[in-house]
Amino acid sequence: MAYLSNHKKKILLAALGYFASVAILLSFLYWFLKNEGFSEGNFLVAGLLVLLLAAGWGYILSSHLLAPKAELDANLSQLSSEILHELNIPLATIKANTSMLKKRLQEEKRSLKRLERIEASSDRLERLYKELAYSINKEIHPIEKEEVWLVPLLQERIDTFESFGRNRFDMEIGDMKIKVDRIGFEKMIDNLLMNAMKYSEKNTPIKVMLEGSTLMIIDEGIGMDEAELLKVYERYYQGDSRKEGKGIGLALVKAYCDTEGIAIQIISEKEKGTSVLLDLAHVHV
Q: What are the Histidine kinase domain coordinates in residue numbering (predicted)?
């Protein structure tokens, strides 16, 4: 952040310097024509000189300002790629060895149970790795969209949250194919399912329904009043500060929906629950 702030200051100072330089060159042009007399030849010579000086000065300024940032971006990109590569190796090793040990320990139930916990943790670690790789790649390259079926995608995410042993999820949807940035879509759904769980009692169900092209996630949790609804997309806002989290989930959801052209609507009532409606018409294929 400090680097960006300093970089902005440099750009502002450079813009002011460039503006002053152009003003001086125009003054020179005025002085030259006033003293030498206005003619087509004098205007072309003086004008060409002014343009050359302005272009050269602009090139020097832009090179000085942009070169360090381009170098920094290249270094960060290379460092990120190397870290991701190094993370992938031990992760793959853990998963491969866990799989082999699982086959050998079929008769030893306690050891097998522990092994399954390691396997579940490595799956979560792999998920985090993919999300990290996705976030870094998204900053460097445009993410290519892919066609996915909605039911298996949602079922996979619901299975993950049901493994926490909290709320029951009731899914009532017919299948539908969508074309989206898949990992971004999964992260959006994860945020919405996590919020539904976080603000609901453990014994209340969470419904995931599809009506037409509208996907709905409905909980029976603490809900929000109108004042809270107005702030719900604000970054770092949390309706209940006693709950875990940093208050950025719905801001990320809104940003993703805006990018994909998915209209989002949140309907909520205090002590009654919250419904999140996602209109998938724009991404339906």
A: 82-284
Summarised one tens digit per residue, pLDDT across range 240-279 is: 655 555 567 888 899 999 999 999 999 999 989 999 999 9
Q: Which domain holds residue 117?
A: 1-142
Does residue 1 share a domain with residue 121? yes
Query: Residue 163: is its pLDDT beyond 90?
Result: no
User: Could you tell me if 234 and 267 lie in one domain?
Assistant: yes
| Model confidence, pTM | 0.60
Task: Note whether 21 and 55 are same-domain residues.
Answer: yes
Write out the chain in H/E/C secondary structure: CHHHHHHHHHHHHHHHHHHHHHHHHHHHHHHHHHHHCCCHHHHHHHHHHHHHHHHHHHHHHHHHHHHHHHHHHHHHHHHHHHHHHHHHHHHHHHHHHHHHHHHHCCCCHHHHHHHHHHHHHHHHHHHHHHHHHHHHHHHHCCCCCEEEEHHHHHHHHHHHHHCCCCCCEEEECCCCEEEECHHHHHHHHHHHHHHHHHCCCCCCCEEEEEECCEEEEECCCCCCCHHHHHHCCCCCCCCCCCCCCCCCHHHHHHHHHHHHCCEEEEEEECCCEEEEEEECHHHEC
Mean pLDDT of 97-125: 74
Are residues 150 and 131 both part of a single domain? no
201 with 248, same domain? yes
